[in-house]
Amino acid sequence: MSNTAQNSAIVRINSLLDENSFVEIGGLVTARSTDFNLQQNETPADGVVTGYGVIDGNLVYIYSQDASVLNGSIGEMHAKKIANIYDMAMKMGAPVIGLIDCAGLRLQEATDALNGFGEIYLKQSLASGVVPQITAIFGNCGGGLAVVPTLSDFTFMEEKNAKLFMNTPNALAGNTEEKCNSASAKFQSEESGIVDFTGAESDIFAQIRQLVTMLPANNEDDMSYEECNDDLNRICADIENCTGDTSILISNIADENIFVEVKSDYAKSMVTGFIKLNGVTVGCVANRTQVFALDGNLDKEYDSVLSPQGCEKAAEFINFCNAFNIPVLSFTNATGFEATLDSEKKIAKAVAKLTYAFANANVPKVNVVIGKAYGSAYITMNSKSIGADIVYAWPKAEIGMMDAKLAAKIMYPAAAAGVIDEKAAQYSELQSSVVSAAKRGYVDSIIEAQDTRKYVIGAFEMLFTKKEDRPGKKHGTV
Predict the structure, then answer these.
(1) What is the pLDDT along the chain (478 residues), one digit of tens a residue?
(2) Could you say which of 98, 139, 161, 410 is the most buried, measured as most Cβ atoms within 10 Å of its Cβ?
(3) Which residues contact 475 (CB under 8 A, 6 or more apart)?
(4) Domain that residue 319 falls in
(5) Is residue 198 located within the same domain as residue 310?
């Protein structure tokens, strides 16, 4: 054991892992460089505690930076210890968790430290899609180190003292930390979307533990399921009232009503996260038009449109699910695309990314149309057209080109109001109803909202052994 036994780095590890499960690796490693003032400075464990342990019985590899040793700065041996943990994790097929509290590059080691950064980036890149990577930030994470959480799959950030930045707030032209603290957890979770979860230190440990129990250990792990004690045929009464706030809807259908939402503070018109259905981990993606606060009052409302941020958030999440063979369940309620000058700069590309993510994913995919599904937005949201295996629709849902009355006005621009109403009714029946879509095979079944849980569980059970051949290629380019 290194002499870091009582510092914050080891305390954090022990707070996260199962009791007495941590085994340290490389505790006696110290800096090799003696340039400048390093000769007279002790560097116990070279400022990072590394090893392995378990979370709820699941093997994980972990590193935790020690800010009491040269401010946790990264030097040659510090980086090699982290790289070694990644090598072991990929051999054994287990997640890597990094606890960040670091001043950045160690100036005294210059190019050796820079090379160390590169080694960490390389290991993270190689591990991407092989084992889950989780980063939690408790202190500074700036400059080149800010690439580490963005190369990870999930990022946690302590809400008060942690700082995440490529450039400090005061280095941004026209900005100061007092004006806009772009390094704060609030900014990075709500504005940039880099951070998935925020909270107090103890909250973060609990959130990481919960997430780890939801995820497979690696991309070949088929053990991401557990015994389900919830009724598989449970009726979800009043679920139709959750069409607006789909985070509540998803919680309702989940085993034991547990929903681990990802990036909950970012692009709130799109919901992403994990649930268990019959004990199997499922990734959920849903459009959202309402957000209710904890007190039950309506907090925010959104148009039923796809935004650039929401599309990118969902696409990134679907890509993760596909990489780790996690089935995808979507809930569609989208009538078009966000129409602002700012969104127009990115919306087409973002929608393309989301469309590609759904179409490219070869895991089991189930879609439930719960509201209005119009035009290209409907196609993008995991429709049958782009590869959904099973599509359900609630009886009051609508599927079509556009709102029936608007369609009637376009087709009969000179007609009287009565004629418009008549044609709109006909259009709705013939072109926008779920029955019409079902007759054409675009919807597999029309189900009562309260029966959603049992139907999607049944669909995923049927799809459990899905195999799908795709054209041979190195990778896509979208």
Answers:
(1) 344 434 789 999 999 999 999 999 999 887 765 555 565 566 778 889 999 999 999 999 999 999 888 877 888 889 999 999 999 999 999 999 999 998 878 877 888 889 999 999 999 999 999 999 999 999 999 988 999 999 999 999 999 999 999 988 888 888 888 888 999 999 999 999 999 999 999 999 999 999 999 999 999 987 667 889 999 999 999 999 999 999 999 999 999 999 999 999 999 999 999 999 999 999 999 999 999 988 889 999 999 999 999 999 999 999 999 999 999 999 999 999 999 999 999 999 999 999 999 999 999 999 999 999 999 999 999 999 999 999 999 999 999 876 767 776 778 787 778 867 776 677 667 666 899 899 999 999 999 999 999 999 999 999 999 999 889 999 999 9
(2) 98
(3) none
(4) 226-394+447-462
(5) no
H-helix or E-strand containing 328? strand 328-334
Contact 214, 137 (CB under 8 A): no
* Secondary structure in 3-state letters for 365-389: EEEEEEEEEEHHHHHHCCCHHHCCC
For residues 174 and 65, membership in a common domain is answered with: yes
Say if residue 198 is in the same domain as residue 241: no
Q: For residue 287, list its beta bridge partners.
A: 270
Residues 171 and 319 in one domain: no
* Cβ-based neighbours of 414, under 8 Å, separated by 6 or more: none
Long-range residue pairs from 221-229, CB within 8 A, at least 24 positions apart, any chain: 221/93, 221/324, 221/325, 222/325, 224/280, 224/281, 224/326, 225/276, 225/278, 225/279, 225/280, 225/281, 226/276, 226/279, 227/279, 228/255, 228/276, 228/278, 228/279, 229/255, 229/256
Which two tokens mark 315? 């696409």
Q: Is 188 exposed, middle or buried (0-12, 13-18, 19+ CB in 10 A)?
A: buried
- CA dist 300 and 269 (Å) reads 10
Token pair 């890509």: residue: 319
CA 203 to chain centre: 18
> How far is it, in rounded angstroms, from Cα 302 to Cα 214?
29
Q: What are residue 284's phi and psi, to 5 degrees?
A: -115, 140
Say what the pTM is.
0.93
250 and 284 Cβ atoms separated by less than 8 Å: yes
Residues 335 and 371 in one domain: yes
Q: ∠ CA 168-98-17 to the nearest 5 degrees?
A: 135
